[in-house]
Design a protein that fits this description.
Blueprint lengths: L5 E3 L2 E2 H25 L9 E5 L6 E5 L18
Antiparallel strand pairs: 1-2, 3-4
């Protein structure tokens, strides 16, 4: 295929090819950036729902955790 082939109106393949390559590079760069720096979803395998009896904070904490993340009070029973 010749690079002088007209693709659309007066746009040739030779004029369009650098733009296609640039878009592909930007797309690949964004995908890599997202894979490296996006926040990973936390699996809740070792987490339990907890409501602090001292300050009322509620949320998921590690089932091995012993303190409330807000007030630092001892968690005691992790049932929720």
């Amino acid at each position: 295929m010749n690079l002088d082939t007209i693709i659309f109106n007066d746009i040739t393949l030779g004029q369009l090819l650098p733009w296609i390559v640039a878009v592909a590079v930007v797309y690949a760069t964004l995908k890599i950036y997202k894979a490296l720096f996006s926040k990973k979803k936390v699996t809740l395998q070792h987490n339990v729902y907890f409501v602090c009896s001292n300050c009322g904070w509620e949320g998921h904490i590690s089932k091995f955790g012993t303190r409330c993340p807000k007030c630092d009070a001892a968690t005691g029973d992790l049932g929720g």
